[in-house]
Specification:
The protein folds into 4 domains: 3-66, Arc Repressor Mutant, subunit A (Orthogonal Bundle), CATH 1.10.10; 74-251, Rossmann fold, CATH 3.40.50.300; 257-363, Helicase, Ruva Protein, domain 3; 375-528, no CATH class. The strands form 5 sheets. A 5-stranded parallel beta sheet has the order 4-7-10-3-11. It has a 3-stranded mixed beta sheet with strand order 13-12-14. The chain has a two-stranded antiparallel sheet with strand order 1-2. Helix 18 (430-440) runs antiparallel to helix 22, helix 21 crosses helix 22 and helix 21 (479-488) runs parallel beside helix 23 (513-528). It has helices spanning 3-14, 22-29, 33-45, 74-81, 86-97, 115-129, 149-157, 174-177, 193-205, 232-235, 238-242, 258-276, 284-292, 298-319, 345-352, 375-398, 403-419, 430-440, 445-451, 454-465, 479-488, 490-507, 513-528, and strands spanning 50-51, 59-60, 105-108, 137-141, 158-159, 171-172, 182-186, 207-208, 218-219, 223-228, 246-249, 280-283, 325-327, 360-363. 52% of the residues lie in helices and 9% in strands. The chain is of the alpha/beta class.
Amino acid sequence: MKRIDLVFETFKKLDKGSGLTTKEISSSLNMERSNISKDLNILVRNKLLYKNNSRPVKYFLTNYNNANIVFHSSMDKIAYLFPSLIPSIKLAKTAILYPPNGMNCLVIGDTGVGKSMLAYMMYEYARSLNTNKSMPFLHFNCSDYSSNPQLLSSHLFGVKKGTYTGANTDRAGLIEQADGGILFLDEIHNLPKEGQEMLFVYMDTGYFKRFGEVSHKIKSSTRIICATNKDINTSLLDTFIRRIPIKIYLPKLSERRLEERLTLIQSFLKEESEKLNIPILVSYNSMLCLLTYDCPYNIGQLKSDITLSVANAYSDFIINNKKQIKINSPDLPQNMKLEISKTLHKEKKLLDSLENYEGYFIYDKNTTIASHSFLKQKHMILKSFKEFITNINITIINKKIDADSLFDIFNNYLASIRDNELNYQFNLNNSAYETIYKKIITINDKFKLFFTDDILNDLFHIHIDMIYDRINNTDIDLIPCINKLTTLYSDYNLLTMKFKNIIEDTYNINLSNQEILFLFILVIYIYEHK
């Protein structure tokens, strides 16, 4: 066995998930640290190991920088934690991605639902796609100047010198300042008729004139995100509404799932604990109140009420020299305490699923904010798929291939799907999968036998349903792995390609190498597994 192979095998035996140093490997093998360091760095270059920048440097089997396989952006994280926002997030991404400069959009929702937050996340998403490009983000609240249409227009479009007393020089407006980036116009319903007309001319042409200008036009590639909490049909011009192709609705807190409200509550409690740098304990009844009370001003009010509750408990902690900050019912604002007498079966079932200590839920800086929704199932399956790809790649590249080892890895992935399939919610149209199924079982009898097994067919259906979720799931170079499989199992390569073409044609997608590797292993499994 080569030294580098011995180092890698030893690393896998010693690794507990928290990383290993050169010294630890060197001590285990009784070899020079310089040689071990050299081999470890070769393994890093080959993407079989990963390292951080700590002192001493630690090496890992999985990329600690890319451990989260779901959250490619802040919007992905929000969609994972709050599934009711998935349609909104999808539209928000569409507004950013559409060439050449995205599409103007209108965010609609009541006070406190998170319109400003979504606008900034859209900006972050756009910036992540153009890391080498300077991209400003300007936030302007139209209500600040709603009583002065001329001043409002001058802020948006700029002012030509001499237009009014005090306009001693030409002044750039927000649309000009935000060129190449995003201008977020909050409370757009306060923009007067004249301002709306000027704005939709800019949306149509990409050109605008400064306030007071007669002929000179200025070009800008600013993307406009508007927001309103009013009925757009009564507060905005029809001609203005027609210029905005994407309208994103954000649901009220009362329209969102109970599980999502719990995640919000936990997030705000963790934030307060981090500010105070002290754990916060919340009683069972207090959590019930937070889950059930009427919160007409939505997320903004929920956050404010939680902050007040923490502040009341903190005062008691300081004044009475308490050992811990504990939120009990008397610490809650009065409006929270009205629902507790109701029969709350669903709420209690949800709280009973959480860990508590002597009737209190504890939140501190180390608290993990997780999804309590069905998307947690998908997260676990995605994590398992990434482990499947990583382990298959390591096994094929670094070992003499043993079919049983491949099948063990494959079965672990199937087991993960099986463990998370209860109440799984499908994204894709079932008729498309039926098309795939009918084509696959005609390939030959081996395929028909495999896919007419209801359990295996159901597991594969879930796997296919998540095909878009796995895009950009891994950055491992899988070509050497696929090439080695092609050499060793050349008879199955044609079947794999036929399988690949069926899926690509049905879903109008170009399958990545990780998808092809999975299909290759599946074909081997269908033919070789006993």
